[in-house]
Design brief:
By secondary structure, this protein is an alpha+beta fold. The chain contains 9 helices and 4 strands. It has 2 domains: 180 residues, NADH Oxidase; 42 residues, no CATH class.
């Protein structure tokens, strides 16, 4: 049997069933950064364990698995974290000008105290030793790997009906002090996790007019940077427009 003749068999073997495939895309397209919709209902240990397991199964360069997950439920610790956020957020507001400053001040950018669980995802830069496969020339690959764990966690949470909000407006030294992080540990993502009253149809910053979603076809180049035409580019661009429109309309590729 030739390679071409065997291809359909392998495609069928590795292809997810349509419902399973569409569920993955649905989680991706309906994921939102949650700030103000958290409910006080606790997250069960079984669900939390599944979400953390999904995060732990993220890809990592050199199989470093550089992440840790600091779980925060204590109201006193949350209050200290919130105070650190409030200080940095006031500084951030002054960095914007005019109408953007007013819009920024009206936005709720965290759910630290409302979410039943806060999770700090970290990166241990020494976990795999000084020389790591795949990190020999790009030293930040351990940090990028930890971000993959964040994405896995977020999508798994969405599939469980839970919301996640990423709070990034902190001075890192404040997080280090409050959570007693060793010097080698890099804070990657401070996440708020919990049940929610609802998910927005659109990302909140898009809905308030802060930024629009960019057309995907404008972001794809062919062979070289900013080369927008190439072999087969026209039908692919049409397919990109159609796929993005379908995702926005249906939160899935299921027509």
């Amino acid at each position: 049997m030739t390679r071409a003749e065997s291809a359909p068999f392998h495609q069928a073997e590795h292809h997810f069933a349509d419902d399973a495939r569409n569920a993955i895309y649905q989680a991706i397209f309906s994921r939102r950064d949650v700030r103000s919709q958290f409910l006080p209902e606790p997250v069960s240990d079984e669900v939390l364990a599944r979400i953390l397991t999904a995060a732990h199964f993220a890809p990592s360069v050199g199989y470093m698995q550089p992440w840790n997950f600091v779980l925060i439920r204590d109201a006193v610790v949350k209050s200290r974290i919130h105070a650190a956020f409030a200080e940095a957020n006031a500084e951030a507001a002054d960095m914007f000008e005019g109408e953007n400053r007013e819009i920024y001040r009206e936005l709720k950018l965290e759910g630290i105290r409302e979410a039943p669980i806060n999770i700090l995802v970290t990166c241990d830069r020494d976990r795999a030793g000084p020389v790591v496969i795949g990190r020999t020339h790009i030293k930040a690959m351990d940090i990028y790997s930890s971000v993959c764990a964040v994405q896995n966690l977020w999508l798994a949470a969405r599939s469980e009906g839970l919301g996640v909000g990423w709070v990034s407006i902190f001075h890192q030294h404040a997080l280090r002090e409050i959570l007693a992080l060793p010097a080698r540990i890099i804070p990657i993502a401070y996440l708020c996790l919990g049940h929610v009253s609802h998910f927005y149809e659109k990302p909140e910053l898009e809905a308030v007019g802060w930024r629009p979603r960019l057309p995907l076809e404008d972001l794809v180049f062919f062979e070289q940077w900013e080369q927008r035409e190439g072999g087969g580019s026209t039908p692919l661009k049409a397919a990109l427009r159609e796929a993005q429109a379908l995702a926005i309309k249906n939160r899935s590729f299921h027509s």
